[in-house]
Design goal:
alpha/beta; Rossmann fold; 3-stranded mixed β-sheet; 13 helices; 12 strands; globular
Length: 384
């Protein structure tokens, strides 16, 4: 299958290119290297060094015999998007090409409007280019479980049946975004749903939980490694906790740490994405998959990292700090995740196993983390 990955230079994009390529898919990619620039703006760098794209592509071809057709460009340019789709003729477009950080979007008015312009306009350009030049192509869009917020009822996969004043209907489950970034994801959802209804496009919206991990099986050479961010904007809680454990800094859950989230290992995320690619929706269908494996509170996550670190001889403490975000400290959280399992998804590793691998990889680069340890603690605050 021909797969075009937008955002191929990123954490997920580069990993997916390898995963699909070694399995015989014909992979092409788009990127303008924004993630590298945004992390540099945070005065940070990836804990695990990554190569430039030319070196990455050469290594992937040399080691695994995979050739990737790479295009440098920006999704906010409609002509670039149109030309790339015409040239690559993809059966599936995997859309990772957005600004993915909630804190980054809350940093200033400029960061908020940039996130909206970048994310919404890029997605609209993809939809229009597909409508005009690739109407049968499957759009696999990366959403986020954060779109749902933390309602006091179970969270279905995208849609639910509701009865009101004696009538029933199946409707999109309400979204309750927690940041300007999450608002752009909600807008994307609405725009894609409309494009499928209006133009007959087909799309899978992946509501993804937090992805963790430093490697998959194809990363047999340092040139094939993917990025691992740990700054306050682009580093997830699990990334920040692991790097704090490695350098001997207390782990810092926000608030009480009772906030719950869904988590999935990087290698299992790749499995889910390939299942979605290999099993596309019908013409005109918009579907939603909730993609996660297990649910933990942030404090439980810190305890898991502490236990994994202590097994490696690290002295790890947990020190809760004030929460810079506006979010419920304690809440009900019971999301569904059935559809990918029905397609065959089977988790491969438990959290404690993956944490052991992550810590081993990060200990190798402890000095790189030490150099930028000042970027881990939060300075961006939702209400300021």
């Amino acid at each position: 299958m021909r797969v075009l990955i937008a955002g191929i230079d990123g954490y997920l994009g580069w990993t997916l290119a390898q995963h699909l390529g070694v399995r015989g898919h014909e992979v092409s990619g788009i990127d303008n290297f924004s993630r590298r620039a945004w992390v540099a703006e945070m005065d940070s760098h990836t804990a695990i060094p990554i190569e430039n794209m030319a070196t990455r592509l050469n290594a992937l071809n040399e080691i695994h015999g995979v050739e990737v057709d790479f295009h440098v460009g920006d999704l906010t340019s409609y002509m670039f998007v149109k030309r790339t789709i015409e040239r690559t003729k993809p059966d599936c477009i995997v859309h990772f090409g957005e600004q993915p950080s909630a804190p980054f979007s809350m940093k200033s008015p400029w960061h908020s409007t940039f996130t909206h312009n970048n994310n919404l306009n890029g997605t609209l350009n993809l939809l229009y280019a597909m409508h005009e030049h690739a109407p049968k192509t499957h759009l696999l869009k990366l959403g986020t479980m954060g779109e749902y917020g933390t309602p006091n009822i179970d969270i279905p996969e995208g849609f639910f049946e509701i009865e009101y004043r004696g009538r029933k209907d199946t409707l999109p489950f309400p979204r309750q975004a927690g940041s300007w970034y999450h608002q752009t994801k909600v807008h994307d959802t609405n725009n894609i749903m409309f494009a499928c209804k209006n133009w007959g496009l087909n799309s899978t919206d992946i509501m993804q939980g937090v992805v963790y991990g430093t490697q998959i099986d194809t990363m047999t050479d340092p040139r094939l490694r993917t990025r691992f961010d740990f700054d306050e904007a682009f580093g997830t809680a699990i990334n920040r906790f692991c790097t704090q454990a490695v350098i001997g800094h207390p782990l810092t859950p926000y608030g009480s740490g009772d906030m719950k989230r869904g988590f999935i290992a990087l290698r299992d995320s790749m499995q889910c994405l390939e299942l979605a690619i290999n099993n596309p929706p019908q013409e005109g269908e918009y579907r939603v998959f909730n993609q996660f494996d297990e649910v933990y509170s942030i404090y439980q996550l810190a305890e898991q990292v502490k236990d994994a670190g202590e097994k490696k001889g690290l002295a790890v403490e947990i020190n809760n700090i004030d929460n810079p975000r506006t979010e419920a400290d304690k809440h009900y959280y019971n999301p569904d995740s059935v559809k990918l399992r029905e397609l065959g998804f089977m988790p491969t590793k438990q959290l404690h196993e993956e944490l052991s691998i992550m810590l081993d990889d990060l200990l190798t680069h402890r000095q790189r983390i030490e150099e930028k340890k000042r970027v881990i603690l939060p300075k961006i605050r939702w209400k300021e």
